Amino acid sequence: MKRSQNSKQSDLESNHHLVESFSHPSSGLQDLPPNPYNKYAWLIGEPIIGDDVWIGAFTLIDGSGGLTIGHGVNISSGAQLITHSSARRTVTARAYPNVDRAPVDIGAHTFVGSNAVILMGTTIGKHCVVAAGAVVKEFSHFPDYSLIAGVPAVRCGDVRWKDEI
Q1: H-type helices in 24-112, by residue range?
Q2: What is the spatial distance between Cα 36 and Cα 144, in angstroms, rounded to a whole number?
């Protein structure tokens, strides 16, 4: 489908307006701590982030429970890497007083698609693809070269070409 120049310009203006509205003082996002990856990404705690990593806008990178992101990883816009959960504390009316935390490890050269969610305790191998919109359950483990997709996310393939396997 071919799009007109006017349509493309309209999309650019809409995207610009969206970004500007998120950076408006009323949004509260100007209080996010600065980070070297993307001014519209939120980094919590002290994640260990390898070289040559790209992090898209509107991502949540939660290093409060321990997070390692390998060299050359690409984290698309809207993705969330979460290393904590307050669910147990909430449903017990705080009879369980703790916020649970467990580290997440993302292997080198892994691609995390837009709006994917990776929950605490997860290990994702090297050279993996986590599909857009996937929800990776707590304490999941995936080997190198996995194609990971779905809700809940499962290993549904291998990203290597047939002659590489």
Answers
A1: 87-91
A2: 28
Amino acid at 60: L
Q: What is the DSSP string of 146-160?
A: EEEETTTTEEEEE-S
Q: What letter would DSSP give residue 99?
A: P
Residue ranges in 52-161 assigned as alpha helix (H) = 87-91
Q: Rounded distance, CA 42 to CA 49, Å? A: 14
What SS3 class is residue 38?
Answer: coil
CA atoms of 81 and 63, how far apart (whole Å): 8
Neighbours of 26 (CB within 10 A): 7
Tokens linked to 136: 């990776």
| Residue entry with tokens 């071919």 | 2
Q: Kindly indicate the confidence band of residue 1, based on its pLDDT and cuts at 50, 70 and 90.
A: very low
**Torsion over CA: 33, 88, 119, 46 (sign):** positive
pLDDT digit string, tens, across residues 62-89: 999 999 999 999 999 999 999 999 999 9
Could you give the CA distance from residue 150 to residue 102 in angstroms, rounded to a whole number? 22
Label residue 36 by pLDDT band (50, 70, 90).
confident
